[in-house]
Write a structure and sequence with these properties.
Elements (H helix, E strand, L loop, with lengths): L12 E5 L4 H12 L3 E6 L4 H11 L4 E4 L5 H15 L4 E4 L14 H11 L1 H17 L2 E6 L12 H21 L4 E8 L5 H6 L3 H10 L12 H8 L10 E4 L3 H5 L1
Parallel strand pairs: 1-2, 1-4, 2-3, 4-5, 5-6, 6-7
Length: 256
């Protein structure tokens, strides 16, 4: 994926939510390339992806099937990953569901379900790893937000609300745990063309209109998110915390 090496990530115990598909799969591979020991959770089966990673890199990620809306199951998976790879030193909260929804049609249960996947796991995964990071003298947490709330995206109010909250949570946790040597930052992607995005929403008209909003004249791919996350996870960003980096090709710059 890239030639940049972060030597402190070699051997690091990394835990990624939603690490077997889309952006998450690119992140898993990116950390494997750095020599990290990667564990990830995902609801759908990722065994074939793990086989591919093992064949390509000689290192197999630890796939732990999990519905992240089940907080106790998520906690158990984090504990299992720490048992297998050592205490978690890098947490990447990546899991999300950006299914479109309309404000006037949402029931209370729909709202709660959206926050259960898009916000709640971020808090409780952090809660689970912070004690082990404290014992190690530090660690890094990278949360995935989105520019959707920055640009006033419609048709996904629960998703945009969750991502605004993720940025706020990032800043609060950076302050709360900074003296423990734990850095907490966020990455806010623009429109990253995963297989899911291409299948559900990427019509030629939508793609063309969105590209007009970017400063950079090409569409974004999952691999484009790897560099920012590796940088924030590594000691190369040792004095950066509480920040949200828009990795969006310049949309926010244009909209500001």
């Amino acid at each position: 994926m890239g030639e940049q090496r972060y030597t402190d990530l070699d051997g690091a115990s990394v835990f990624i939510t939603g690490g077997g598909a889309g952006i998450g799969a690119a992140l898993t591979e990116g950390f494997l390339e750095q020599g990290a020991r990667v564990a990830f959770v995902q609801r759908s089966d990722a065994s074939e992806f793990c086989d591919e990673m093992a064949a390509r890199h000689g290192s197999r990620p630890l796939f732990l099937p999990c519905d992240v809306t089940d907080t106790e199951a998520l906690r158990r998976c984090i504990a299992e990953a720490a048992e297998a790879h050592g205490p978690i030193s890098v947490l990447v909260n990546n899991v999300a569901n950006d299914a479109r929804h309309d404000t006037l049609d949402m029931e209370e249960a729909d709202w709660e379900a959206a926050l259960a996947v898009n916000l709640r796991p971020y808090f409780f995964a952090t809660q689970a790893v912070v004690p082990m990071m404290k014992r190690m003298g530090g660690g890094t947490i990278v949360n995935f937000s989105s520019i959707s709330y920055m640009v006033g995206a419609a048709e996904m109010p629960a998703y945009t609300a969750a991502n605004g909250a993720i940025t706020a949570l990032t800043r609060g946790h950076a302050r709360e745990f900074g003296r423990d040597g734990i850095r907490v930052n966020a990455v806010a992607p623009g429109w990253v063309l995963t297989e899911r995005q291409m299948r559900l929403w990427a019509s030629p008209e939508a793609l063309g209109a969105f590209l007009e909003r970017q400063c950079i004249g090409r569409h974004l791919t999952p691999v484009d998110m790897v560099g920012p996350v590796l940088f924030l996870a590594s000691s190369a960003s040792s004095v950066i915390t509480g920040q949200c980096i828009a990795a969006d090709g310049g949309v926010v710059t244009v909209a500001a």
